[in-house]
Amino acid sequence: MRLTDYTDYSLRVLLYLAIRGEGLSTIQDISDAYGVSKNHLMKVVQQLSELGWVETVRGRNGGLRLAERTRKLTVGEIVRATESDFALVACLPDQNGERRPCVITPQCRLRNVLEAARNAFLAELDRHTIDEVAGPQGPLAALLGIRTVIPVVPAVPVEPASDNPLPVA
């Protein structure tokens, strides 16, 4: 089974935004990172936004970021939403539930084998979330040219030294 470029780009956009974290990214950033067409990505981002998986911020300092709930989406859920056809052969039902007739259908074992393989493929994709496949973020961020932001940990206040130290037992 081969996924369409549309699905591939959808997964790449979500992966990029998951790695990027809270900061905003532009379609141009993603296009540059992967070396793919900005125009193709615009169509993908529009659908991802309509699905509520990507938040868009308009304006001069606008951009894109991953909706928080998207981190929990499975790769299988994303593939099902972006692929248009899972009928590996004509006798399997398409998105509309239709199948083309075949003379060997009453005795065909191949159809069941292919259907089981498709189901196993999707089941494996359902085992992995976007958040999971985005890790570890450091190495992926470096490959994509994303500067990772190191969270600032507040310093613990230190009490000033006393002139009268306590006796040590």
From TrEMBL:
Pfam families noted in UniProt: Rrf2
Keywords tagged on the record: DNA-binding
GO molecular function: DNA binding; DNA-binding transcription factor activity
GO CC terms in record: cytosol
Domain of life assignment: Bacteria
Entry keyword DNA-binding: yes
NCBIfam families: rrf2_super
Name of the protein in question: Transcriptional regulator, BadM/Rrf2 family
